[in-house]
Amino acid sequence: MGTMNNFIKMNKKYLLWFAQEHIEFRREEIMSLVSLFNIKMNFVEEPTLEQPFWVVEFLNEDDVHLLANRSVSLRSCIELLTFAKSVKGLHENLKTFSTDYVKLLFDDNKSFKIEVETFGKHFTHSEKVNKLQAFDYLPYKGKVKLKDPDTLFYYIEYYGTDPTCPPKEPYDVYFGRWIINGLRQLVKKFSLKTRKFIGNTTMDPQLSFLMANQAKVKKGDLILDPFVGTGSLLISAAYFGGYILGTDIDYLMLHGKTRPSRISQKVREKDESIKANMVQYNLESQYLDVMVSDFAAWYWKDSLKFDAILTDPPYGIREATEKIGIHKEAYTISEEHLATHIPAKIEYGISQMYFDLLKFSCKHLKIGGRLVCWFPVFREDYTVESLPSSNCLKLVANSEQILSKYTSRRLLTYEKIKEPGEVDLDNEITIADFREKYFMLREETRKEKRIKKAQEKYENYQQYLQKKENK
Ligand SMILES: C[S@@+](CC[C@H](N)C(=O)[O-])C[C@H]1O[C@@H](n2cnc3c(N)ncnc32)[C@H](O)[C@@H]1O
């Protein structure tokens, strides 16, 4: 670190402090927001996936506010006065800062507080007080105020992400002025525990907000979820100012008539619905509508364009992958049965479904608009090449959430880069067929379990016979 004068000449350095939850998505979220707000951000040090602290540069503090007012991964943003690889190094740096800026921060009219935080290693209260007293040389003039000080400083020691064997000395040490917190409070505010209408497929609120950020939803955007279920993805889109539309093949789900998913609830309340959730969160003004419809037979006007499509299509595990259809050939319904006819459903192959989703997005997204969707994969087989792709859609983010030893789902973000040619739209999309293998493997693991159980039974029986013989 240079002196404070050097520091001012450079872009200011900031510490982005992240929550250690859903860490695979944090970089994608921040990069989407950086692109949404056209922010210039440089990494001073390239962070690893697990690292909750990023040292970055921004051109000005307004950008920090823009980012923090949208990010759910971000815990806090701190203007870094200095940082070092050792405690001694940090204090040496700080002692050289005798400029007006530091004096200004410790002005006699301003109250302050220094918060000591350690990450990855536990320290007692008195050990933390000792760390605090090491700052006695700072030119404080103002009063210490523990609640709502004018300036809040953070001193942070980072010991890595494995608290079971932390190093003796910290890897990184930071000191800076707190600026703003991220939107972590939304995780609690939108908790499923207190949400009126939920189902088995409702998305965790943090992931929903991450998706809306990756989709770069902004005020006035038109947003669609074509597999809307209980509408959890649309809540976050509406919160960021999007106008929301949803469709789902499941009539009972959209009408809040499916079996309640809360164990404590025997029957659904009369008014459970996606709209009721919007009312609960005071987002009713953003709600356009939800409709029962089969995505395999979409009916939208060609001219309708969405700013973003956010969706979690069915994988056939918790919910059926179906579309309207019948295996019988040349099937007709008589006039008298038409009014009461409930159409039959046939299997909607996952490959076909993603093909349709990409085709729909090529056609109905605005240029620059984003499709953010989950895609299930068989981990061993995964390669980027096996992901659905299209000439009109650029894959801009791709992160994994592990579901089991064999499977995971990937959150894919595509950006529309060109309009499709009228004739060759089908040729613009490539989808690998993976589902058969996925299910074969599920069958295999079941079979393996059955064999293991039978073997255990057999061994127990042998032991029992042996004991009997010994007696
Ligand atoms: C994984 S869930 C989506 C959950 C949703 N994000 C939520 O908040 O509850 C997939 C949804 O796709 C619906 N679906 C299945 N096949 C469909 C089809 N052919 N057309 C439209 N929706 C379909 C299911 O009824 C289910 O609600």
What does the model show?
One of its GO terms (molecular function) is tRNA binding. Its main location: cytoplasm. It is built from 13 helices and 18 strands. The model is unreliable at 1-10 (pLDDT under 50). It folds into 2 domains: 4-183, VC0802-like, CATH 3.30.2130.30; 189-439, 3-Layer(aba) Sandwich (Rossmann fold). With 471 residues, it is of the alpha/beta class. Helix 2 crosses helix 8 and helix 8 (205-214) crosses helix 9. The strands form 4 sheets. Strands 2-3-1-4-7-6-5 form a 7-stranded mixed β-sheet. The longest helix is centred in the C-terminal third of the chain and has 36 residues, at 435-470. Helix 6 (125-133) links the parallel strand 5 and strand 6.
